[in-house]
Specification:
It is globular and about 45 Å long. The chain has a four-stranded mixed beta sheet, sandwiched between helices. The chain is built from eight helices and four strands; from the N terminus they run βαβααααααββα. A hairpin with a 5-residue loop joins strand 3 and strand 4. Helix 1 packs across helix 8, helix 4 runs antiparallel to helix 5 and helix 5 packs across helix 6. It has about 220 residues and is of the alpha+beta class. InterPro entries: Rv2466c-like (IPR053977), Thioredoxin-like_sf (IPR036249). Pfam families: Rv2466c-like (PF22234).
Length: about 220
């Protein structure tokens, strides 16, 4: 390849809800993969509140509280920012929100959302969309796009890539903690693509014995 040639990067579509600590771990791994493989992440929103809205009565009280108005607020603000300022702000705002919600253990408060907006240079007025349903249909459309690619029995994150044969490969996860770095991130990526693209492959799973480690 000459200096004038640019290798085309493989697009990786990633669906997240800012509230989900496991999606946050996977997203940090995915940023590591960008450094060691020719991939480019495209960020999309999904919503745990939408995912669980028909079964809230079956969930423990703490989850019902989390997926109520508090659960809608961060993702609504991300969607509003995306609609008003373009797709390129999505990943930056997600990083600012996730760092404060998860790494700093501040939770998804209005103050945290306001601080995240300020950190990435977005107007404070966007905070008003935390309580607005103006872009809820956009949110639902993005959510459904991700879920329809991988199936109804999963949560966040969802990842979708073009397969070697041209067909889409979409999967939930991987769920991992802490997020692998460097070549460890690359090996996990290669292995995930290998199993996800194997005809007839559906699932590998084991019980989680550790919580997310935000190292």
């Amino acid at each position: 390849m000459t200096d004038t040639q640019v290798r085309e990067k493989t697009p990786v579509d990633f669906w997240f809800d800012p509230l989900c600590p496991w999606a946050w771990m996977t997203s940090r791994w995915m940023l590591e993969v960008e450094k060691v493989r020719d991939v480019e992440v495209r960020w999309h929103v999904m919503s745990l509140a939408v995912l669980n809205e028909d079964k809230l009565d079956e969930l423990p009280e703490r989850y019902r509280e989390l997926l109520g108005p508090k659960g809608w607020a961060p993702v609504r603000v991300v969607v509003a920012a995306q609609q008003k300022f373009g797709e390129e702000v999505t990943g930056k705002l997600y990083t600012a929100l996730g760092t404060k919600i998860h790494n700093e253990d501040r939770g998804a408060t209005r103050e945290v959302i306001a601080d995240a907006l300020a950190e990435v240079g977005l107007p404070a007025e966007l905070l008003a969309y935390a309580d607005s349903d103006e872009y809820d249909q956009v949110l639902r459309d993005s959510h459904n796009d991700g879920i329809e690619r991988v199936g109804q029995e999963v949560g966040t994150p969802v990842i979708s890539v073009p397969g070697a044969d041209g067909e889409e490969v979409a999967f939930f996860g991987p769920v991992v903690t802490p997020a692998p770095r460097g070549e460890a991130a690359a090996r996990l990526w290669d292995g995930t693509l290998l199993v996800a693209s194997t005809p007839g492959f559906y699932e590998i799973k084991r019980t989680r014995t550790k919580g997310p480690s935000f190292e």
